[in-house]
Amino acid sequence: MSSPSTSSFIREFLILVGAFQRNSLVSTLAALGMILGVAYSLWLYNRAVFGNLKPDFLHKFFDPNGIEVSIFIPFLVGGTTVH
Fold it and tell me: What residue ranges are annotated as transmembrane (predicted)?
């Protein structure tokens, strides 16, 4: 999520300006996607941080079992290697 006065906003704005010069329809759709992404991020942040999240579904989830852990460990090991 990029908001005005941050470096990520400036980068995204410059990318959209350059894309608009080539194809205005694609850049307009990209800008709309960016705006919807920011709106969703703020909505999710509000629900998660300020307690508006309804955890009724949490009783369906369980701690990972041995098979799930053995599947996940290679991802952890592979993600920590330096290339």
Answer: 25-45
